[in-house]
């Protein structure tokens, strides 16, 4: 019976480690997001925004490359749910989504409201008061999921779109009364439409109990190796610790 040389036996752990590291490094990461200005948005054919810049910094820190693709949220969400090695951002972390993804961490702040047009007033003391109005939502996003979970019905008192811009257009056209969105996105779209940098969306009801209010996150699909996920968690921590995150935030949180 042939025996394995002692020297080779001693080398086996190192060889296995090299093979595992190489295999993990060979994972191709797909990154997906949506048009959610100013977090993620395409300007002159280039994807930019606060969330995008943070993700790009994390990718660089982790030593990974990924082509980031922007698409309707429902499609991005479905890809991240059902594919391997998919990074999705800017996504709210809610109890409903907790077990569906492997979470990296918060990349941008957010607060959610029901908004209306300037000059309009709705005496909304609770979410129940909003049930008699038409509300614009984005398909499969956290705002729509929240309202559906509260008993609102798509096609009855919710009007679902693929883009946040479409919802603001509906509001201006009088096709809906209210619009669920996060604060930064709502103010950005109002200012872009009006050309007035001081104009803001009109918040009618603060949705404090909407999950994920601590911020928008980056997360991996469940079919992603834990080693990759942990490497990205540590990379985000370093981006936050050395001031890169604050420098990016200062550009966009105005």
Automatic annotation (TrEMBL):
<dbReference type="Pfam" id="PF00497">
    <property type="entry name" value="SBP_bac_3"/>
</dbReference>
<feature type="signal peptide">
    <location>
        <begin position="1"/>
        <end position="25"/>
    </location>
</feature>
<protein>
    <submittedName>
        <fullName>Amino acid ABC transporter substrate-binding protein</fullName>
    </submittedName>
</protein>
<feature type="domain" description="Solute-binding protein family 3/N-terminal">
    <location>
        <begin position="28"/>
        <end position="254"/>
    </location>
</feature>
<dbReference type="InterPro" id="IPR001638">
    <property type="entry name" value="Solute-binding_3/MltF_N"/>
</dbReference>
<keyword id="KW-0732">Signal</keyword>
